[in-house]
C-alpha cells in the first residue's frame, strides 16, 4: 500500500478534437486509451520518468494490461482533465490509474494500465531496473 504523502499524481487539461468524435458527436471509445497516454506522458514530464528517460536507460515498457470504464460522454470542443496517479508496487512494473473529468468536474471515465520492463534484449525484468529503483527512492516510494 501507498501512504498518502507519497502518492504521485499529475493533472493534464485537454480539449476534444473534431477527429476524435464519432457520427453521434461524442468521443469514440478508443480515444480514451489515447487520453490515458496523454496522462502518462504529462506525468513523466512532471515527475522525471519520461519514455525517453526509460529508453535512455536501455529499457522499454510495453503495456500488458489496460482497463477502461465509461460513465459519461465527452463531446467535440469540450475541455476535460486527466488525473494520472502512479500506483507503487514492489514488482518491476509501472501501474497508472486514470480519472477523466468533464468541464463540470463529473467523472467521465476511469481506468488503469500496467507496463512491464523489457531490457535491450527484449527480456522481461523480474526486478526493478537500477534507474527505476533510484527514481522510486528519490520520490519516497521505496
From TrEMBL:
<dbReference type="GO" id="GO:0047617">
    <property type="term" value="F:fatty acyl-CoA hydrolase activity"/>
</dbReference>
<comment type="similarity">
    <text>Belongs to the 4-hydroxybenzoyl-CoA thioesterase family.</text>
</comment>
<dbReference type="InterPro" id="IPR006684">
    <property type="entry name" value="YbgC/YbaW"/>
</dbReference>
<dbReference type="InterPro" id="IPR008272">
    <property type="entry name" value="HB-CoA_thioesterase_AS"/>
</dbReference>
<dbReference type="InterPro" id="IPR050563">
    <property type="entry name" value="4-hydroxybenzoyl-CoA_TE"/>
</dbReference>
<dbReference type="Pfam" id="PF13279">
    <property type="entry name" value="4HBT_2"/>
</dbReference>
<dbReference type="InterPro" id="IPR029069">
    <property type="entry name" value="HotDog_dom_sf"/>
</dbReference>
<keyword id="KW-0378">Hydrolase</keyword>
<protein>
    <submittedName>
        <fullName>Acyl-CoA thioester hydrolase</fullName>
    </submittedName>
</protein>
Amino acid at each position: 500500500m501507498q501512504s498518502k504523502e507519497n502518492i504521485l499524481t499529475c493533472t493534464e487539461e485537454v480539449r476534444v478534437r473534431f477527429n476524435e468524435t464519432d457520427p453521434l458527436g461524442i468521443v469514440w471509445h478508443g480515444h480514451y486509451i489515447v487520453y490515458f497516454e496523454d496522462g502518462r506522458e504529462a506525468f513523466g514530464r512532471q515527475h522525471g520518468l519520461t519514455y525517453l528517460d526509460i529508453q535512455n536507460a536501455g529499457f522499454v515498457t510495453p503495456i500488458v494490461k489496460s482497463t477502461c470504464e465509461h460513465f459519461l460522454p465527452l463531446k467535440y470542443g469540450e475541455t476535460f482533465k486527466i488525473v494520472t496517479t502512479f500506483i507503487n508496487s514492489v514488482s518491476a512494473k509501472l501501474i497508472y490509474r486514470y480519472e477523466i473529468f468533464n468541464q463540470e468536474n463529473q467523472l467521465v471515465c476511469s481506468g488503469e494500465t500496467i507496463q512491464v520492463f523489457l531490457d535491450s534484449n527484449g527480456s522481461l525484468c523480474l526486478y526493478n531496473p537500477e534507474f527505476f529503483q533510484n527514481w522510486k527512492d528519490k520520490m519516497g516510494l521505496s
